[in-house]
Amino acid sequence: MTGSTSEWDIKKLRILRTLGERGTVTATAEALHMTPSAVSQQLTNLARQLGVPLLEAQGRRVRLTDAAHLVLRHAEAVFAQLERADAELAGYLAGEAGEVRVGAFSTAVPALVVPAVAALRLTHPGVEVRVRETDAGEAYELLSAREADVALSLAAHAPTARDPRFTRIPLLADPLDVALPPDHPLATAPSLRLADLSSEPWIYGGSGPWSEITRTACEAAGFVPEQAHSAAGWTAILALVEAGMGVALIPRMAATRATGVTIRHLPHDRPIRHVVAATRRGAESAPAIARVLAAIREVAEG
Fold first, then answer.
1. Which of 26-35, 90-99, 175-184, 231-240 has the lowest mean pLDDT?
2. SS3 61
3. Is pLDDT above 90 for 299?
4. CA 97 to chain centre
5. How far is CA 228 from CA 106, 237, 262, 291, in A?
6. Contacts of 6 (CB under 8 A, 6+ apart)
């Protein structure tokens, strides 16, 4: 009665394959740095485990039985799969392969993450990036729960640099621009300050980080913005601006994709938001994660 597949021993199968290649127990022992008696014992045990004869005498040599050749035909598929596993593991250890989960806020996805993933597909196709759009708070919850490996957020809404759970990596300073209706009187003004828009109707979210950023920037310029409309998504905000219903602060990362409105830089006030990446402390040295972080930083610096 033959043994079950759980009794197929990879080490013993390698010995059997080497014997088929070398022809003698002595040559097999030399090739595998074993003693001839150890080779014979291992093959005897394998035959017992599988329940079939594997060797037969042929003069002073031994030859593999038909059953042994059948076993090796199947074993070769196993050896090939193990070679592929070794190669994939080596790639993983070298940062050439592996899955990295990235949680990022909305404007960072098209501006930073997507170009980084596109670059990685060319240079390190074995690194698979899974992207999840999140708000700042959720990104760090995902990191803590090990449901994300990299989090992109605004520095103002990230844990402090002294938080022992995370490593923060500064990425860029993202200037805030003003979105104006195309026919706005200040759309073509030679110079524009944020204070010039103090009497305008403003569009920003009712709560959350962008609401705070807008109010903080305007208050630093000496006025409290009158909120005419509340919207959180850039598509909605820009549609309202394009319709002439108000003005809005737009991060440069989002402004590059804005159409139908006039985008004006603010060289004098120049409010800025700082974008950071974070990982669980220590995880930044994992090869695949390090590859993804490097790709994101290259996009940010470009």
1. 90-99
2. strand
3. yes
4. 11
5. 23, 11, 19, 44
6. none
| Ramachandran category for residue 208: left, alpha or beta (phi over 0 → left; psi -120 to 50 → alpha) | left
| Model pLDDT for residues 281-294, shown as the tens digit of each residue | 888 888 889 999 99
Q: Looking at residue 88, what is its pLDDT? A: 67
pLDDT in tens, 217-275: 999 999 999 999 999 888 899 999 999 999 999 999 888 778 899 999 998 878 888 99
For 24, counting Cβ atoms within 10 Å of its Cβ (0-12 exposed, 13-18 middle, 19+ buried), the class is middle
Instruction: For residue 159, give the DSSP letter.
Output: P
The residue with tokens 């950023």 is 213
In angstroms, how far is the first alpha carbon of the chain from the final one? 68
Q: Which of 5-9, 12-16, 88-92, 97-101 has the lowest mean pLDDT?
A: 5-9
> Mapping DSSP to helix (H, G, I), strand (E, B) and coil, where does residue 248 land?
strand
Strands of 105-240 (E only): list them. 126-133, 150-154, 166-180, 201-203, 226-229
Of 112, 103, 113, 106, give the one whose Cα is nearest residue 146.
103
Contact present, 284 and 297 (Cβ < 8 Å) = no
Q: Are 149 and 279 in contact (CB under 8 A)?
A: yes
Please, which residues bridge with residue 127 across strands? 98
